[in-house]
Amino acid sequence: MAGDGFIVIGEAVDGASGLAAAQALQPDFVLLDIGLPDIEGFDVATALAINGPPPWVVLTSSRDARAYGRRLTNGHALGFIPKERISGAAIRALVDRP
Amino acid sequence: MWDDAGIRGRTPLVSTLPALRSTTLNWVRALLLIIAGALGLGMLVGNAQRGPLALGTVLDVLVGWSFVACGIFIWARRPTNRLGPLMTTVGFLWLLGRTMTLVPNPVVYTAGLWLTDLWAPAFALFLLSFPTGRLGSRADLAIVGVFLFVTVPLEFLWFLFLVLDSGLNALGIAPNESAAHVIDTIQRDLISLGSVLLVISLGRRWLRSSGPVRRQMTPVLVGAVAILLQSASWIFLSSGTRLELLDDLIFLAQIAIPIAVLFVILQGRMARAGVADLVVELGQTPTPARLRDALANALGDPSLQVAYWAPREDRFVDAAGEPIVLPEDGTGQAVTMLERDGIQEAAIIHDAILLEEPGLIASVASAMRLAVENDRLTGEVEAQLQEVRASRARIVEAGDLERRRIERDLHDGAQQRLISLSLELRVARSKLGEAGDPEVQRSLDRAADEAQAALVELRDLALGIHPLILTEGGLGEAVESLADRTSVDVTVDVGSERYSPTVEGAAYFVISEALANVTKYANATKAVVRVRGLADHMTIEVEDDGIGGADPRSGSGLRGLADRLAALDGTITVVSPVGGGTKISARIPTIQPMPSPVLAL
Known about the structure:
heterodimer, A: about 100 residues, alpha/beta, three-stranded parallel β-sheet, B: about 600 residues, alpha+beta, Beta-Lactamase, 3 domains, five-stranded mixed β-sheet, 10 strands, rod-shaped, disordered C terminus
């Protein structure tokens, strides 16, 4: 991903530490797994949107979009990329989407 | 399941009197019969000496003979039924009193008059105690009491003041005509009152009993009306008018009554009719209270009680669960046990006099045994049905849980591994760049595509097993997701209410199957999905504008759905006229049945 014009500045293993890291690091983008062990990804996205200048949130999951339906588009996320398709280009495509 | 010993009386079914006593009693009865004959003849002769015999006199004698003869006959055939001796007494009071009044001796004449009037309470007792010879209620006892009050203390008082031209009043120590008249009037009024009460009491019993029993009760009711008419005629008599025709009619009725009673008692018609009624009544699975009434009616025993064995409490209880103590022998009551496989289940507590009719009590007990058995089986089936329903619902629920578990396992296991494989392949491919062997490049590309294809197939499978969105987002979101993936235009009208996972699962699969059919067969341009949550159930409608003609019997999809819904007590109907679109309607209870305890007797 780094090669696609993104720099990974932090990683977190669950929702709580992810929120803390976002607070501390103020990233431009957050790549967020919906299936986190503690807080559901959708709720983390909402929390990120509330707590200060929102980063762009891109949701991902090992399930595909059908498992989440309209929750993917109704929330605060920029979009959804299935886990195996994650790449800088894919994220860039979401940002560039009209 | 019932053995022959299923019914047994705690007291011997047939009471056996010592042979000697029985023989003596037969002599006594024969003697009484001869005396009654002689008394009647004496009456006829005595009256004939005074002038030509009136029809009334002959009928008079016949009334007495009828009572004595029928009474003695019943007494001989049903030795423990008090009705026989009672009827004999009635007849004797009638004959003896009337014959004695023919004797010109003050003591004999006065006693004769008194005995004649004592006939009234005996007759009332006879009517009210039919068919057992015992009074059924305190009210009946009070009615007999009225008759006794008139004919014993008031009668004695009357005799004290009574003035007789013949001078034959042995008790007339204070002759006073007006006092005697006042007492006489009171006596007549009280007798009339007693007669009215008598008719009311018997009339009520008559109305309460069913057809055949009613017919059998008719003789005593006629008797009651006769005594009422007679007392009414006495009032006419006191005002100087005598209705001879009415008297004769009353006599005729009084002759007929003992004969009718004799037939009823001896043929056991009443009992048989009662049992027939009972069987009909029991066929309608009566409440415990009605069961008791039906048994009481059939056996003609208003005091009858039904006791149920409560094994846990180790005692008998009534239908309300109150303990019942079974009567001991010699208390006038007897117990007939109902047993199943040698275990007591219920008991009928009844008048000991019914033991004279072992056939009757046995047939009634059999009928009740059937009802109890019927009740028990109904209860068992009901309980089993409840259990089957509950277990069917549990199976569906367990299946749903299992589907969710499999979906999660696929996600946590194979799906994750395929994703890392896919990512790994892409990393390898990008590391290789354009530098490597073109064969290896193509091979890696193909491997990545295969891994991706496998992932897509696995996700399809997981989605079909259990859509996560249903659990996470509810029926509304799941159906919207379904609609998004359906090629025709689907309008979704589903609320955001949540239901139990089982109900949501069933509803989701109904809609999913219906929409799949719309896509595959209906040739439709649009479809509508409507879900309504009502108080205790939800309704689902899926309607399309396609070609119709869908046959719900063909295709296992809809049939499988019908089974799944049936497990939840739901229903599904398909309306699909050719050319008129297809409408699938389903109804699912949202409150699932709980197994409820059933009392089995």
